[in-house]
Design a protein that fits this description.
The structure is a homodimer. Chain A has about 280 residues and is α/β, with parallel strands linked by helices. Chain A has twelve helices and nine strands.
Chain lengths: ~280, ~280
């Protein structure tokens, strides 16, 4: 694979799963973990996700040839500032953040010119969090979006994509802007909607919730701090996605008229067909 | 159980599953199926969901002591008219419709005074349809709402509730109005939202859809004709639920402001906690 010392900054669900997967698939590599809570680091060591634990980002990245930011995106500015002086010349830095414009801009501004940054978004996760739910197969067959810019080193990009492939992922390249626009539509808005759908229910309605409601709102149980960071970071695109949905709802509400029954059927059938064409 | 000849009008997923469950749990009873397509009836016979097949509702209900309407609610008026003359004195009629005000009103108006109608809504189903996906355990541990009115015969209500319990269901009683109001919020709106969420996505966004999007939109693949009937029948309550969601979205959009980060966290955390308290 070409990386021998890999630093994982943040050993929660994603960071922990990367460590577990590497121990299975990249036996030579040494995995270094950083976390700000001692218990999390201890647990990550016990579970075999990391080989070495640091509670200081600079110590964790020293001599690493690959550094992966796995903390919530809101913590990236401080993390990048603290680790930068300790980065080895030629090190490659990537991340697992759910937004890409601000992350890439920040990393390109704060990291020294002697290292290469490649933005990544491995689309794997769960509404659960923490190293306890980490799994070596979390990334199998999931999609990883890489977001190169004009400044991205082509060789670094290639190596980062190889890294995710080794963990079982498929790769799609998107500019940071396209990433954030499309993810606002297909990921951030659905999360906000699920939360709104739960928030509006009185308890007498929740008592009647069936499988459909459970499926539709499962993501609403996600970590509030993590999603706050994503939403605020991508708020311009998310606002646009919310407006697109408002237009769809207006269109739908206009179809709630017996005189337009055929149009309502057409609208519902088109959505059903579109959904059926995706995986279950 | 007390019913010896049970007519199932409409042998799709729900009707077929009732037949399969009865064959397991009410061995003495004879199960009569009505459908307007010969192939469906043949398939229901082959799968062991029914003992006898009719393509005429009157023939199917003759001498039955329990009749269950399992076709889409939009077909109920015609079905009730056609079967009414053939109903035995003292027969109990119930249904599996997803709306209750119009169904109960219609049944109480159209059925002869010699039979008892009890509105039911067994909350089991799937985005798939047809007798092919019917299962004897479809109702296990799911909720069935019965919707008695001032005209409902107490003994008939009791017997219908016992019937659903025998199929493994839990029972909740709600007035037709409360049923329709709460179901608009917790079932009909989520379905409309899932369809809107799918409808607004460009294909480049759908290509990035992950597990969260799949879960959130699974119900959008439901049958268009079935949901059109439900939506039009319950449109006043659904419009109110859409408006409640619009208010939630406005509230959410107002929180997309770094100055209100704490309020956004509070809003998300409240929704996450509320969702976590439900089953997974």
């Amino acid at each position: 694979m070409g990386f021998s010392r890999i630093s994982i900054l943040g050993v929660g669900l994603l960071g922990g799963s990367i460590g577990l997967a590497l121990h299975q698939r990249a036996k030579g590599a040494r995995i270094i973990g950083y976390g700000h809570r001692r218990e999390t680091l201890d647990r990550a060591m016990q579970l075999g996700a990391i080989d070495e634990a640091h509670d200081d980002p600079a110590g964790a990245v020293r001599e690493a040839d690959l550094v992966i930011l796995c903390t919530p995106v809101g913590t990236f500015p401080e993390l990048l500032r603290r680790m930068s002086p300790a980065l080895a010349r030629g090190a490659i830095v990537t991340d697992v953040g759910s937004t890409k414009r601000s992350v890439v801009e920040l990393a390109e501004a704060l990291l020294p010119p002697t290292v290469h940054f490649v933005g990544s978004h491995p689309m794997a996760g769960s509404e659960k969090r923490g190293v306890e739910v980490a799994r070596a197969d979390l990334f199998d067959n999931a999609l990883c979006i890489t977001s190169p810019t004009g400044q991205t080193d082509p060789d670094g990009l290639e190596r980062v994509e190889q890294f995710w492939k080794q963990l079982g992922m498929r790769i799609t390249r998107l500019s940071p802007m396209n990433h954030d626009r499309l993810l606002a539509q297909v990921s951030h808005l659905p999360h906000a909607l699920a939360a709104a759908l739960v928030a509006m229910q009185p308890s007498e309605a929740l008592a009647l919730a069936g499988k459909g409601f459970m499926d539709a709102t499962r993501i609403a149980a996600g970590d509030a701090g993590l999603w706050r960071d994503i939403f605020l970071d991508n708020r311009d695109q998310l606002e646009q996605a919310v407006n697109q949905l408002r237009h769809q709802l207006d269109e739908f509400a206009a179809l709630l008229d017996p005189a337009r029954a055929d149009d309502l059927t057409t609208w519902l059938a088109a959505a059903a067909r579109k959904r059926e064409q995706l995986a279950p």
